[in-house]
């Protein structure tokens, strides 16, 4: 990592631990900062704080005392999940203490060029595809950021001949100052996180910050299927590289005659993509743009895009039993995500497993997307609502206790050539702590199925 002096002998407050806060505290300590960590979890329940204390880092736990800010801090490194209306953050802003997130620190210390990926949907799949393609070509690409690997930790261990492939949330991008990726990707923009940002306009502005420090030497990959992103193309200093599934964009990646092209060069047939769904064609196009800008061979691109089985819990192909395919899309915690998943399958042979936390909404929006399904298995708090939807459309529907029993029931009903898709359209919190736990139990149930 770069040995920078920005923080040397300066008081820095790390607000909120989790993985990114813990990593930031250690990196700052290495850089000679006088670090204080403040986390709401009590000390005796806080292993991370205990570890940092043994390393000589000051920790304040069990609450967020405002008088802590009287210590004349030079900067606050805020956990992305902590909103800006938090009293500590508001007080720091009033005191004109610069507030950054950990990805800014990662940028400042990184010797590696950064490829930054943001957007509402498809970030994790696109990020993983890009890393896999670059690595397949013999390069060293490291996953980092919102994908589960703290950016500052990865940056501190990376070298100039490696590349950081960094997934970036709107929360993280609100806390940048100098951050500048060599290549940036914006997959799409839909409505999300309005409780945090206050408005769709604020949310989109936070996402757009990914390019604010980019120059004509950098590349911004944009989804031209969306007018709102196409219209932003004139608002950046970076070189815009578009992708589209609906039209020929001569300076980027596009679909024509059933094939994917990059700048008129034929790359591969769309039918050879291993991941189903129009949204995954978009993800593949974005990844191809980055790969070609990075000098990657078509051989490496094809080797990944024709075999990639998906990110765990995100339309993940698990395999088949008795010639019945199983997909795990537990990450589909809302109706839009399930609609996107359904778009990639033949509904006549598809069994949908759905249900979860009841947030008071109905499921009428799903009517057109599920109308011709072979069957549905429903579970969780919203099972009665989903059953009513299925019955109104004359779709065979069966109740099940949970996701594991739903997998077994679907297997018993499905025939050779069918597909079973877990895409719940609901959050998991009625029965499970996380969508990952829900997906893991589905995987376990699939693994335990016996050939019939």
Automatic annotation (TrEMBL):
Annotated ATP binding sites:
119-125
A Pfam family that this protein carries is MurD-like_N
Domain Mur ligase C-terminal as annotated: residue spans: 313-425
Q: Which GO terms describe its biological process?
A: cell division; cell wall organization; peptidoglycan biosynthetic process; regulation of cell shape
Q: Write out the GO cellular component annotations.
A: cytoplasm
The UniProt catalytic activity note for this protein reads: UDP-N-acetyl-alpha-D-muramoyl-L-alanine + D-glutamate + ATP = UDP-N-acetyl-alpha-D-muramoyl-L-alanyl-D-glutamate + ADP + phosphate + H(+)
What domain of life does the native source organism fall in?
Bacteria
Question: Gene3D superfamilies this protein is in?
Answer: Mur ligase, C-terminal domain (3.90.190.20), Mur-like, catalytic domain (3.40.1190.10), NAD(P)-binding Rossmann-like Domain (3.40.50.720)
Q: What does this protein do?
A: Cell wall formation. Catalyzes the addition of glutamate to the nucleotide precursor UDP-N-acetylmuramoyl-L-alanine (UMA).
Name the UniProt record assigns to this protein: UDP-N-acetylmuramoylalanine--D-glutamate ligase
Organism for this UniProt entry: Pseudolactococcus reticulitermitis
Its lineage opens with:
Bacteria, Bacillati, Bacillota, Bacilli, Lactobacillales
What gene is this protein translated from?
Answer: murD
């Amino acid at each position: 990592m770069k040995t920078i002096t920005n923080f040397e002998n300066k008081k820095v407050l790390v607000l909120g631990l989790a993985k990114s806060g813990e990593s930031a505290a250690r990196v700052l300590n290495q850089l000679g900062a006088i670090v204080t960590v403040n986390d709401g979890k009590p000390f005796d329940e806080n292993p991370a704080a205990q570890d940092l204390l043994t390393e000589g880092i000051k920790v304040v736990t069990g609450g967020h005392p405002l008088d802590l800010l009287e210590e004349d801090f030079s900067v606050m490194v805020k956990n992305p999940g902590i909103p800006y209306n938090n009293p500590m953050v508001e007080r720091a802003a009033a005191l004109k203490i610069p507030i950054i997130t950990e990805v800014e620190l990662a940028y400042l210390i990184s010797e590696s060029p950064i490829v930054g990926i943001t957007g509402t949907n498809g970030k994790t799949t696109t990020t993983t595809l890009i890393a896999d393609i670059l690595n397949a070509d013999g390069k060293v690409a490291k996953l980092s950021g919102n994908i589960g690997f703290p950016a500052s930790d990865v940056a501190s261990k990376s070298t100039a001949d490696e590349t950081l492939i960094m997934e970036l949330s709107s929360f993280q991008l609100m806390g940048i100052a100098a951050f500048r990726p060599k290549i940036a990707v914006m997959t799409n923009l839909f409505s999300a996180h309005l409780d945090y940002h206050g408005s769709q306009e604020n949310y989109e502005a936070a996402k757009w910050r990914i390019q604010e420090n980019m120059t004509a030497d950098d590349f911004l990959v944009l989804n031209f299927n969306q007018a709102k992103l196409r219209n932003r193309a004139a608002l950046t200093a970076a070189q815009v590289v578009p992708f589209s599934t609906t039209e020929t964009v001569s300076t980027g990646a596009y679909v024509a005659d059933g094939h994917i092209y990059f700048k008129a060069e034929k790359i591969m047939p769309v039918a050879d993509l291993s991941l189903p769904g129009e949204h995954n064609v978009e993800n593949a196009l974005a990844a191809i743009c980055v790969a070609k800008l990075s000098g990657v061979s078509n051989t490496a691109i094809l080797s990944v895009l024709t075999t990639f089985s998906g990110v765990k819990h995100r339309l993940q192909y698990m395999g088949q039993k008795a010639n019945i395919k199983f997909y795990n899309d537990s990450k589909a915690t809302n109706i839009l995500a399930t609609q996107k998943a359904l778009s990639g399958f033949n509904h006549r042979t598809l069994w949908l497993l759905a249900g979860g936390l009841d947030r008071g909404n109905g499921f009428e929006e799903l009517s057109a997307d599920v109308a011709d399904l072979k069957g549905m298995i429903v579970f969780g708090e919203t099972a009665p609502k989903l059953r009513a939807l299925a019955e109104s459309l004359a779709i065979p529907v069966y109740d099940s206790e949970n996701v594991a029993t739903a997998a077994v029931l679907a297997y018993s009903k499905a025939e050779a050539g069918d597909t079973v898709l877990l895409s719940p359209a609901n959050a998991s919190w009625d029965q499970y702590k996380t969508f990952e736990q829900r997906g893991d139990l589905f995987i376990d149930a699939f693994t335990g199925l016996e050939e019939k």
